[in-house]
Amino acid sequence: MNILAIESSCDDTAAAVVKDGREVLSSVIASQVPEHILYGGVVPEIASRRHCESISGVVKQALQQAEMTLSDIDAVACTYAPGLIGALLVGVNFAKGLSYSADLPLIPVHHLRGHIASNYISHTELKPPFLALVVSGGHTHLINVKSYTDYEVIGRTKDDAAGEAMDKAARTMGLPYPGGLNMDKAAQGGNPLAYKFPKPSVENSELDFSFSGLKTAVINLVHNLEQKGEEINIKDIGASYMHTVASCLCDRTALAIEKYSPSALVLAGGVSANSVLRKQMQTLCEKYKIRLYMPELKYCGDNAAMIGSQAYYEFESGKIADLSLNATAALDIDKS
Ligand code: KG4
Ligand code: ZN
After folding, report:
1. Of the four listed, 127, 212, 227, 313, which is most buried by Cβ atoms within 10 Å?
2. What is the pLDDT of residues 158-202, one digit of tens each?
3. Would you identify the CATH topology of the domain 128-297?
């Protein structure tokens, strides 16, 4: 089954053709980073406008790269939640138009389900059940993935997402958007123990996360150094900060492993590209002797191949939308 998938939930306009949920025949991404970099973050109105301008060309390119026309496609899928509403609407409406004009089934996909599915592309043997840690710009979730379409959220952030905490800290350190990625690059070779940051926990909910205190700590550190006219050692501060964020994520994941005894851990979302987190997760999974799955770097960030992968399983479970499908800015992964 060939699925043409569209992703437009934030600042990437993406389209892909995916066969049977696992084989990526094409994947095209038009990134808007050069534009948003001017503002230090995503400007929703600009994101929507750029999606409108790029989407038909990106979809056309995805078909061309797969050496297909619409007549070779069996279904159209799109990310419909969660994300920036104006951005999501562009992809949803384009997909609805295609589905109607080409008389193809329309499959709505939850963005975070897509991130988890990025691992199905890279690891063809991977099947639920497993434990997943989804770390993106807007979400930090520990999820008990019971089947391809059955999820139980067992831990989540009570304030900032891990990616958001990375982005804001990076901005304070003078690094360009996207902050997490640029901090990872700038801090290579830095000393992870040079600075001690707090590792906040959430009282009475051991699997939940909190990053706002940590984010404030690094912002205060940088401002204090600036006021004293001292050097901002980006390498060491960045390395120490990433080490602390990764340790917070690993600590909760360790508790979840102990509680749920999964046979595998799956890492997903934009922050899963982080070099420190990838290493710490590897060590954690070796300790507990469970298999660790991580997406290939090219599928960590937003892309449409992951949406096409998840769409296959949504379709198999009977999830097909009609033309009343609407985009939703906030929607839990288990309510989709
Ligand atoms: O999943 P994603 O592409 O978009 C959302 O669904 O939010 O995640 C974007 C987040 C941003 O916060 C970005 O800074 C972060 O992922 N990110 C990274 C790295 N690459 C992207 N954070 C840390 N290290 C990286 N290498
Ligand atoms: Zn994402």
Report:
1. 313
2. 999 999 999 999 999 999 999 999 999 999 999 999 999 999 889
3. Nucleotidyltransferase; domain 5 (3.30.420)
Q: For ligand 1, which residues put their CB under 6 angstroms from it? A: 10, 136-138, 163, 166-167, 178-181, 184, 269-271, 273-274, 301-302
From CA 150, how far away is CA 172, in angstroms rounded?
39
Cis-peptide into 262, omega within 30 deg: no
What's the pLDDT score for residue 3? 99
Q: Calculate helix-pair angle for 234-260, 275-288, nearest 10 degrees.
A: 30
What is the residue type of 142?
A: L
Q: What is the pTM of this model?
A: 0.98
Centre of ligand 1 from the C-alpha of residue 271, in Å: 4
Note the pLDDT tens digit of each residue in 26-79. Answer: 999 999 999 999 999 999 999 999 999 999 999 999 999 999 999 999 999 999
What is d(CA 328, CA 336) in angstroms, rounded to the nearest whole number? 10
- Ligand 1 atom with the smallest distance to the CA of 170 is 14
In testing the pocket of ligand 1, which one of 109, 181, 307 has its CB within 8 Å of the most ligand atoms? 181
Where along the chain do the CATH 3.30.420.40 domains lie?
2-116+299-316, 128-297
- Region of 289 on the Ramachandran plot (φ > 0 left; ψ -120 to 50 alpha; else beta): left
**CATH class name, domain 2-116+299-316:** alpha beta
Q: What is the dihedral of CA 147, 152, 158, 160, to 10 degrees?
A: 10
Cα of 231 from ligand 2 centre, angstroms: 34
**Using omega within 30 degrees of 0 as the cis cutoff, is the peptide bond preceding 178 cis?**
yes
Q: How many CB atoms lie within 10 A of CB 218?
A: 24
